[in-house]
Write a structure and sequence with these properties.
The protein is α/β, with parallel strands linked by helices and 171 residues long. Helices cover 29% and strands 20% of the residues. This is DUF2480 family protein.
């Protein structure tokens, strides 16, 4: 008896559009600049010393990098100090944000997601991939959901063979 089976790829026939959030990973090295290294005795920022540092520091080393500016010490740092750093970094860095590495990654992903043309997903059944080689912050999934909900027919999370429904438009 001969058994002949036709294997049917139901995922390929489903009409699902897979969207990988990793494609929104912004280029450039990530750097955290910690202002704690500029504090006097690790406690306070002295304006004269800080201004001298800002004037003489080699800012070109941040060329094309994504920089988070923060202070991990328990010290009061005036807003103008962060403003001076942002001013000096701006001509060189790809992106400058206030916060830690997680904030930097969130800002980078949100900016990349905000630039997509959502019309390509109009009336589509979209699966937003949930795993991959690039760590994707939850904020990117939230931003994608917020951007795609008005245009997509449905949104799902996971892989095409195993999805978690997020949204389905009632036609």
């Amino acid at each position: 008896m001969e058994i002949q089976e036709n294997i049917i790829n139901k995922v390929a026939q489903s009409g699902l559009v897979t969207l990988d959030p990793a494609q929104f990973y912004a280029p450039g090295e990530r750097v955290v600049y910690d202002i704690k290294d500029n504090l006097f005795h690790g406690l306070m920022l002295r304006e004269k010393d800080f201004r001298e540092f800002v004037k003489t520091h080699d800012w070109a080393q941040y060329e094309g990098k994504n920089v988070a500016v923060t202070c991990t010490a328990d010290a009061i740092v005036p807003a103008w100090a962060y403003m001076l750093l942002a001013n000096r970094l701006a001509p060189y860095a790809r992106e400058v944000v206030f916060g830690d590495a997680d904030v930097l990654e969130t800002v980078l992903f949100v900016k990349e997601v905000a630039a997509i043309d959502v019309e390509q997903y109009r009336d589509q059944r979209v699966v937003i991939k949930g795993c991959g080689d690039v760590p994707v912050p939850v904020s990117a999934y939230v931003e994608l959901t917020q951007r795609l909900t008005p245009v997509a027919k449905s949104l799902m999370f996971g892989e095409p063979c195993s999805t978690v429904p997020i949204y389905k438009r009632r036609d």
